[in-house]
Design a protein that fits this description.
With 412 residues, this protein is of the alpha/beta class. The protein has helices spanning 5-10, 51-65, 83-97, 108-121, 151-164, 178-193, 213-221, 234-246, 262-268, 270-273, 288-297, 309-328, 330-335, 337-346, 395-398, and strands spanning 13-16, 33-40, 71-78, 101-104, 124-127, 144-146, 169-175, 197-204, 226-230, 254-257, 277-280, 349-351, 355-359, 365-366, 369-374, 387-393.
Length: 412
């Protein structure tokens, strides 16, 4: 079908899921069908970390799951990085379109809103691309699973490594919304615990900031050894490019891209990105299973784009959801989102993206986290050969201890 901006903004565009039986309108669906809605930024700042790539990965999950006796439909929509738009689409999908589960939802403020709607409607939200650790903390829900990464994990891995390497004074450039605030909060905590100090921060309007020069100059004037970038997607790319133009790294200042994706590195190019240290839970060339997944999904991905961790997480989340539906039976799975989430928590996870794992009581999906360094142009052996592995953090250490999150679902 033809895809255009108007289709995305409507939030109700429908595509057949590969590997499912032929698509039928929602009103024609019987009791033997489930409907997945992929909700993200299809046309803006976060398009390359979610967007059509997340849809492709969900469709790949449906294809890999195969025909287990029930139909699967996939639709997608654009929340424009606005909580009110995201919540409105979620309500429409749950109330009118027959959607059973919403997957992806980058932009933490939107994810928090969608999680609330899913709980109200007793449906399911599987958040692959939101970052705020509050989704498994004060804002945890029996209807939500936080799948791929979060601000605590990113801060613990990247922030901790930077302080150990001598970066003991920090200045934060922070996107002014829930994600940026959570990432700054969690990173500052680890910096201080490691003996470092935070000597300044500045908040940047989100969305809409493209010129970071004044913020970078404030950071330089602070004499901080590390500039912590608490932003993502196009904001991170622009920040790093402009820092390079000012020659900040040549003056000995370290840049900490606290949430970076492989698409960001690709956009920057190795000449600019070389030496950056970042944390991810997925890399296409990590092992035989990640390479096999990438080979299968690559023909469905947008041109010139390899799957990043958020998109790969959509695959993992969709696949585990479908396994739970098959285990419960479609009528029971559709009856209660909270009951289906409980079944997903009870079942071990295993897929080509993350390998074996599990889902905790607070809704945190557990799998390893990896600290990578971006290769130099000379070290790279081919297209998208960007990362070298520094440290692997096992699942039980990668994410915040369940006792520290404050999730009301956790039994004392």
């Amino acid at each position: 079908m033809a895809i255009n901006r108007r289709t995305f903004l409507a939030g109700t565009a429908t595509v057949p899921a590969l590997g499912a039986l032929p698509w039928r309108p929602a009103r024609a669906q019987g009791a033997n069908s489930v409907k997945i809605g992929v909700l993200n930024d299809m046309s803006g700042l976060y398009r390359d970390i979610g967007g059509p790539g997340s849809v492709a990965c969900v469709r790949q999950a449906v294809q890999d799951f195969g025909n287990k006796g029930f139909n699967v439909e996939v639709i997608f929509g654009d929340h424009q990085n606005k909580p009110d738009v995201g919540a409105s689409i979620a309500r429409q999908w749950f109330d009118q379109e027959g959607v059973d589960v919403i997957i992806d939802v980058p932009t933490s403020s939107v994810a928090l809103a969608v999680s609330g709607v899913a709980r109200e409607k007793d449906k399911i939200f599987l958040g692959s691309n939101p970052a705020t650790s509050d989704l498994t903390g004060s804002a945890c829900s029996p209807n939500t699973i936080h799948w791929t990464y979060d601000t605590w994990m990113l801060a613990h891995s990247t922030g901790g490594a930077m302080v150990k390497a001598g970066g003991d004074s920090w200045f934060f450039i922070t996107a002014d919304y829930a994600f940026g605030h959570a990432l700054e909060r969690d990173t500052a905590q680890f910096v201080k615990q490691a003996g470092g100090k935070v000597i300044g921060q500045v908040r940047t309007p989100f969305p809409g900031t493209t010129d970071f020069s004044s913020y970078l100059l404030q950071a330089q004037a602070s004499k901080a050894k590390v500039i912590g970038l608490c932003n993502a997607g196009g904001d991170t790319i622009n920040s790093i490019k402009q820092a390079a133009e000012f020659g900040l790294t040549r003056r000995g200042i370290k840049l900490a891209g606290l949430l970076m994706f492989i698409s960001d590195v690709h956009a920057l190019g190795l000449r600019t990105a070389q030496g950056l240290v970042l944390t991810s839970t997925f890399y296409w060339d990590l092992n035989d299973r990640t390479r096999a997944f990438t080979k299968r999904v690559l023909p469905k991905m947008p041109a010139e784009l390899r799957p990043g961790m958020g998109q790969a997480g959509c695959y993992s989340a969709a696949l585990h959801y479908l396994k739970a539906v098959a285990d419960m039976g479609v009528p029971q799975a559709k009856r209660s989102g909270a009951a289906t989430v409980a079944r997903m928590k009870a079942m071990p996870t295993d897929d080509d993206v993350f390998g074996p794992g599990r889902i905790r009581e607070d809704g945190r999906k557990l799998h390893p986290a990896y600290l990578f360094e971006v290769k130099t142009p000379e070290e790279s052996k081919g297209p998208w050969d960007y990362y070298k592995l520094l440290i692997t953090t096992p699942p039980d250490q990668a994410f915040r201890p369940i006792s520290e999150g404050g999730c009301p679902l956790v039994r004392s």
